[in-house]
Amino acid sequence: MSLFIASAHAQTAGGQAPAGGELFQIGFLVLLFVLFYFIAIRPQRKRQKEHTEMVSALSKGDEVVTSSGILGKVTSLDDNYMVLNVANNVEMKFQRIHVHAVLPKGTLKSIG
């Protein structure tokens, strides 16, 4: 029979919840959002801003690594694309946003 009858729970006098319970829940949610902002959102925006600045500062002759791991020297640029010289007489066209890092000058010669 207990399967069909809900269990009774004790309540305070007048059937009201303790004072301040709702305020605590709202404060907890606000605190949780602020914590999430400082742990996840803010660092991601900072990295995104740094990447955008790096991509906009690219120039002809820079040595770069793409997000796929291809190393090359920038031979030409336009608004959205760049052409990389990856080997002798081998040029590949990439989107600028796929640059992972700009390498110091002479890195390609020291590797190859």
TrEMBL record:
<keyword id="KW-0813">Transport</keyword>
<comment type="similarity">
    <text>Belongs to the YajC family.</text>
</comment>
<keyword id="KW-0812">Transmembrane</keyword>
<dbReference type="GO" id="GO:0015031">
    <property type="term" value="P:protein transport"/>
</dbReference>
<dbReference type="InterPro" id="IPR003849">
    <property type="entry name" value="Preprotein_translocase_YajC"/>
</dbReference>
<protein>
    <recommendedName>
        <fullName>Sec translocon accessory complex subunit YajC</fullName>
    </recommendedName>
</protein>
<dbReference type="Pfam" id="PF02699">
    <property type="entry name" value="YajC"/>
</dbReference>
<keyword id="KW-1003">Cell membrane</keyword>
<keyword id="KW-0472">Membrane</keyword>
<feature type="transmembrane region" description="Helical">
    <location>
        <begin position="23"/>
        <end position="41"/>
    </location>
</feature>
<keyword id="KW-0653">Protein transport</keyword>
<keyword id="KW-0811">Translocation</keyword>
<dbReference type="GO" id="GO:0005886">
    <property type="term" value="C:plasma membrane"/>
</dbReference>
<keyword id="KW-1133">Transmembrane helix</keyword>
